[in-house]
Amino acid sequence: MNLVETTRRGEVTVRDLSKSFALNGQRLNVLRNLHLDIRSGEALAIVGPSGCGKTTLLRILAGLDTPDAGLVLIDGRPVHGVGTERAIIFQEPRLLPWLTVLGNVTFGLTVRGVPRSDAETRARHYIRLVGLAEFETAYPRQLSGGMAQRVGIARALTVQPEILLLDEPLGALDAMTKLTMQEELARIWREEKVTMVLVTHDLEEAIFLADRVLVLPRDKPSLPRLIDVDLPRPRDRSEGRFVTMRRRLMGEFGLH
Ligand SMILES: Nc1ncnc2c1ncn2[C@@H]1O[C@H](COP(=O)(O)OP(=O)(O)OP(=O)(O)O)[C@@H](O)[C@H]1O
Ligand SMILES: [Mg+2]
Questions:
Q1: Does the predicted model carry a pTM greater than 0.70?
Q2: For the domain that residue 223 is a member of, what is the CATH number?
Q3: Using CA atoms, how far apart are residues 72 and 77, in angstroms rounded to an integer?
């Protein structure tokens, strides 16, 4: 079978993936024989207790880290390091302080050789998409945390990745900003039709945004579980089925 021809854009295939670290002279198995298929255009949330390997998995998908064993394919091709079809967003936006919002969003394109005027046209589109059109000329120090994170999202989208990898992107935001940003992420995901892999420790956020939730266990004999979030969109947090889903996901962690 030719995987290159049979898979679509932004598909992720993980086979038998294992990763361990040496810690205090001991081997710490973080990921063990993980199998996962992420569909083209899917929103997948990854949840699990602190230290269960969420960031490790995301970094491997991004090509920032290599597994000990196993295979990661993007659209049928093995991952070797970072690639332009994937963009990663961390908890802090890591903007360049000496560049404006427009400069930060354009940067990823100009370093790839896109002519400045084309780069700025594209950057402006994504700055508008994240609702920051009036802040193009602002510097990072003049932005709130939520605004800075939106710049980070615009910067990631500007390179038009097939896969957007997000590691607790809203984790540092206050509760109100977080809710607004969740709505925005839902809209951006819908409009861009990008495959989204979102690490979060907020179970409600996972249900609000994801098609499926991957629950990673901390104790490795337990197996990862995939839960379908079969709820219509746009989602309503107060709706009965949403509440039931949240309760079910909390149950995965022994919470009620
Ligand atoms: N470079 C490294 N060297 C050694 N150990 C590491 C390294 N990176 C991660 N680990 C260990 O691997 C385990 C998983 O780390 P990881 O960052 O993936 O967890 P996480 O699920 O993202 O946790 P959190 O929710 O706290 O962000 C942790 O026990 C951590 O100590
Ligand atoms: Mg982490």
A1: yes
A2: 3.40.50.300
A3: 8
